[in-house]
Design brief:
445 residues, mainly alpha
Length: 445
């Protein structure tokens, strides 16, 4: 034991360097993405309340549509990383190109659906008569950028699989700056109003996609990978992504149910819930950055046939997840007197949010484990298990959450149900990780 301990320290330091090198830029890129909507909101907000309300409805639809296809990044990361680990960079980039072609096909399909149905979709979300025309305008124009958004997701997955998270960070920052400048110029300079904001976002997204394509095409030419669409490869990418789509939809259903239950509790509770949910999402970005590092590193180890290395880095990343969760939980508790007043001066909302916020803080170490193990299993290509585990979680969460109003529970009970959801995920993911069944080696799973 005395000889093994010193030997383990260099390995831990190496794992730490890898995790930090991948996770820190990934966090920056993740945080940069929501800034697109924030910039649009800040600029459109000065046009009027109806325009801002229209933007809120349309952006909610767009965010939902794009988040459904986040598997383009997740599935591609692990698949590309496996081939990197196996030493076949040509096949790695070829795998990434299949994901990019799939993104283009899915983007075209989304446009074909959204353009003719935009008014019905806006009406379904309950937009007012004054806000609806602005929402339809923004949605129709912005939908033209969805193929670019999906290409960005897939290409980000390619670069993450190639162990490169710095380029996505730089592209995200550049895209945010371009989006903000274009919005100001087109909305106010050209006098296009909300349409100018939509066109600015489309142009920025297309620019980001173009930069990614240049990077990927250069890599393909360097390593002799084909750029042509391959039907079999595109089908394989779709099949690998399908279970992660189920997982994502199940998770979205959990969030929608929680919000619906909070809305039934009253205006005060739903207002407090929205504040807490925004913080919960921000904390999730920090955890997800570690998970992204896990996807890339685990995929590479398994591609190289190194199961011991994969298990060792998994253990180290769990320690990172727990440590980050503890730090974030303490930060939430310490900063709560400053955080809540940023969103509201209503004392009733403040009182409703405070105990629920403490529940969220206590849940952060558990959340750290969940995000890390989720990333580990994604990197291993264990999508089918992730899909079934999330469906089981949804089945456990739903009745408990829906009964909260009948039991007389409040917002704290809603976030107690969210903690139950995270605990269920921790159990299912932990059991899978301990079983070792995810340790499938080779260039493909």
């Amino acid at each position: 034991m005395t000889k093994a301990a010193p030997q383990a320290k260099p390995h831990r330091r190496r794992h730490d360097r890898e995790i930090v090198a991948l996770a820190v830029p990934a966090f920056g890129a993740l945080v940069a993405e929501p800034l697109f909507v924030m910039a649009d909101s800040a600029i459109i907000g000065h046009l009027g309340t109806a325009q801002l309300a229209g933007l809120a409805v349309a952006s909610a639809l767009l965010t939902t549509a794009v988040s459904i296809f986040v598997f383009l990044a997740y599935a591609t990361t692990g698949a590309v990383a496996r081939r990197v680990g196996a030493g076949d960079l040509s096949a790695a980039i070829r795998q990434g190109m299949d994901g990019i072609w799939l993104a283009l096909l899915l983007g075209a399909a989304v446009i074909a659906v959204v353009l003719p149905t935009a008014p019905a979709l806006i009406d379904l979300f309950g937009a007012s008569e004054t806000a609806a025309p602005y929402a339809v305008t923004y949605l129709r124009i912005s939908s033209l950028g969805i193929p670019a958004m999906l290409v960005v997701l897939a290409a980000t997955g390619v670069l993450r699989g190639l162990q490169n998270t710095r380029t996505p960070l730089y592209v995200a920052i550049g895209g945010f700056v371009a989006n903000a400048v274009l919005n100001v110029v087109l909305v106010y300079g050209a006098g296009l109003g909300i349409a100018g904001s939509a066109w600015g976002t489309v142009i920025a997204q297309c620019g980001m996609a173009a930069v990614y394509l240049v990077v990927v095409v250069r890599g393909a030419r360097k390593h002799g990978a084909s750029l042509k669409p391959d039907a079999a490869g595109i089908r394989a990418s779709a099949q690998a992504g399908a279970p992660l789509l189920v997982r994502t939809l199940s998770l979205r259903a959990v969030l929608m149910i929680a919000t619906a239950v909070a809305a039934r509790l009253g205006d005060t509770e739903i207002a407090a819930h929205q504040i807490i949910l925004s913080l919960w999402s921000l904390l999730a970005f920090a955890m997800d950055a570690i998970a992204i590092a896990g996807q890339a590193i685990i995929g590479r180890y398994l591609g190289a046939g190194d199961t011991r290395g994969a298990q060792a880095v998994c253990r180290r990343m769990v320690e990172w997840g727990i440590g980050s969760g503890v730090a974030l939980g303490v930060l939430v508790v310490v900063s709560r007197p400053l955080f809540i007043p940023l969103f509201t001066s209503d004392s009733a909302v403040h009182d409703a949010a405070l105990p629920a916020l403490l529940v969220v803080a206590c849940c952060q170490p558990l959340s750290g484990i969940v995000y890390v193990l989720d990333g580990v299993l994604m990197g291993a290509g264990d999508g089918p298990y992730l899909a079934w585990a999330m469906l089981l979680t949804l089945a456990i969460f739903t009745p408990f959450a829906l009964l909260i109003p009948a039991w007389g529970g409040g917002l704290t009970a809603v976030w107690g149900a969210m903690t139950l959801m995270m605990a269920t995920r921790a159990v299912t993911l932990g059991l899978r990780t301990r079983s070792g069944r995810w340790l499938v080696t080779g260039a493909s799973r």
